[in-house]
Protein 1
Amino acid sequence: MNMQSVVKIHEKVLGKIMRLCPPVPPETGGFLGKRDDLVCEFEFDSGIVQLNRGIYKPDSMRLDAFMEKWNDSGISLCGILHTHMAGQESLSIEDRKFIADIMRLNRQLFQSLYFPIVIPKQGIYFYEAQRKVDRIEIVKQEFISCEENVRQGRLNQ
């Protein structure tokens, strides 16, 4: 396993994600924050309700507020996750369109972002969008859970 391409996420963040992401309804989500090379923050977001559409749309006002708060603490946004129903571990066509839009609209901010799929009570599947010269490439990533003594700093619970 190449440790450079493995997502490192604090065990308390993993626990918080699994605790706060509800099994019903699907298509809720949240924001991931990173300090150095460790995902150390998660904030739940129920998203903006879209009638008759089974897709997650983040609340951009909440996202902006968390980005500002995190920046003051040396933490940067590193991902947007959302939930799927059991058996749907892959990104949907709509998910891929959303990812492409986010990456296109934020060319100056992000060279890469994580877009994990959470299956409540089951697991997390990490995907990373990476900006290439002529395209956005989405790759599935492995992750490891790190204990608190791996990194010092404030962990939001």
Protein 2
Amino acid sequence: MTDIEIAQAVSPRPIASLARERLGIPEEALELYGRHKAKLSLEYLAGLDERPDGKLVLVTAISPTPAGEGKTTTVIGLGDALNRIGRRAVIALRQPSLGPVFGIKGGATGGGRAQVVPMEDINLHFTGDFAAVGLAHNLLAALLDNHVHHGNALGIDIRRSDWPRVLELNDRALRHVVVGLDGPAGDHSRDTRFDIVAASEIMAILCLAASRDDLKARLADIVVARTIDGRTVRAADLNAQGAMAALLRDAIRPNLVQTLEGTPALVHGGPFANIAHGCNSVLATRAALKLGEFAVTEAGFGSDLGAEKFIDIKCRGAGLRPDVAVLVASVRALKYQGGVAAAELDRPDPPAIERGMVNLERHLSILREVFGLPCVVALNQFPGDRDDETELVLARAGSLGVSAVTARHWSQGGAGAESLAQAVVRASEPARPALRFAYDDGQSLWDKTRAVATSVYGAADIEADARVREQIATLERDGFARLPVCIAKTPYSFSSDPALRGAPVGHLLNVREVRLAAGARFVVMVCGDVMTMPGLPSVPAAQRIDVDAQGRITGLA
């Protein structure tokens, strides 16, 4: 059976009943979106502050490969397994972006017997959060252009504005566009771009805001342009934050759904980890900590991107601290890191696994030595994995002083991840470790970027042309020096070259562009050729998605 067939064969519990019986949430604290989806009341969540926090489990992975590592699937399977062994667990995930759903990646609700449901709803429009983010973002763009059109009292240099418009689909034709051609003699025309909604600063703000008041304050702080004499222009200068916050009134509330096995799942927010900070919302994570004995969450892509930003941006800003990290790997992915072509990954090749282990070792080093987290390696088992190759990975991981267990949640659901759940419980039992960051607040933006590049990516140094260096200097003069850095780069390598597999060292990380996200409270360092508007592949996933006369969707994966 396909993933969507498995999901559609299950009858989820009414979400109000599940919330009441599994979490003690009264129905008046929910806003129902049909029978199987609901939003949580922020007032109810604020009332949980006096409860003690549960254990926070951060799931991350080795570097992504075409084979897939199964990070989201592992979060779901681990949550189900923790409940099976008597530990109350709540999972917290990001919402899928429609761009990948219709593009190359497919959905992000897990797979096999480890899924969140309703799968098709979550992967498509869900509760409308992405649409609200897109509308708030584009409203600000429209207000900016409207202000210039009606006299430009602020003296905005519209050609220096770096506030693009956004779209929730992959569309490479919109990466570079010209707008404003309807003005007199094209006076207000300029080059700009579209980003995907997941790359919007407002998506990051939604996921980092602690309350509606914090959301509005962050929206007010967005820098949308500069004046002719170089001063920053914020959303507050356009009096935009109130209407934007109104559009996001409901989007800020975490969404509650469930897994195939009835584990409560908070699915909220969806910033990409290669071009944003790659974590679900602070509100959802905090809710999971208050509602569960274990809160299981993930950070996008590998530990070098997702986990680094989870800790250096999300944990730093929200005061969160993981108790244990789970590093997901697979035999197939390690072969790929060892140089095997994607089409050959099913063939036996222990030497390739040996070569590829350097990637796993580097990710373990990041989690344990840079950030100080206890770790468990989850070897996600795929059909066809050979016992001797599996044992090779487990033995090598064990020799590094880390607990490594196989996980079969894709085929067996929570029952296939009970050993992983027990290993996570054991690893979390010592006192919560003192969390370390890759850099200090007081370092310069340049030194913060260098610290991530050298300690996390294994780079020799960073480089940038004079224009980028001046951009950084300007931001520091404007008072943004203490912000964290959010490095946007390819997820497929520790370098900015996606073809460089394994664990390269000694490379230079080129900073191509700098973007201020003052409302999100970080500075984006764009490296290599990473794009903030993806394109569709030669055979998009959209071409196999369909709906029948009864409204039953097929083809989602």
Protein 3
Amino acid sequence: MKMYLKILTSTLFILIYIQSNYLLSQTNKENNRAVPQTDAIYKIKYGFFGGLNMPLSPEEMTKIPKIYDKSTESLLNGLEGLGYKTTYIIGFQGKFNFYPEFWAGGNFAYTSWLSKNSCFNDSIPTVNSENFLSLFTFGINSFYYFTDFFYSGVGVDINLFYVNVKENDSKRENIDFVNKYTRLGLNLMLGADIPIFKKVSFDVSVKAQLTNLLGMQNDNPETSRSVAIINQYGSPQESHIILLLINFGIMFSSN
């Protein structure tokens, strides 16, 4: 985590330096004429991004499992943890300027995790489990630019989860498990959109994403089995999944 924070801090300092030089060059070109904010920011922008996705909560996502309980139909599937680490994220985004400081936009993103774990308990020999999770996010966002380049944002996400759990030669019952889930989420972000050419800018943002604010399920009344994406260890209750994203992107202006 410390390494990622150092990378982020260094990147922000570089961006501030680029921004300062860009503003100075623009001032010289315009002979000290003030440029209205509506002219300084393009009306429509679109582009792609990639970055890092760090799971923050629940702790079962990052905890390396050593023991397991009875299986449940969820990503955790009886393990005490998944051992997930920081992974990649890729996507596409667009922004539309509808008022001087305010923008609206949308994005599509994809990310995934895979862990392979060996666990045991007192009564059953060691089991080897593969736990795969992928996430497609469709987001609608609003942005407020408190300077020409730096912004904050909030958004609503439709999150599509895909879960695939396998245990080859398992001594437990047949627990290979595949399922899909849809959840509504919320995100908050801070970012910088720094011009590097006339119609091209570099966008960097830090985003906190609560992926399953609405739509969580616990027990399936027809089967008495968990239908959670990831349940709390020893309980069928679904846990909130919180992610921290650091994104780097290239944005193009259409006008």
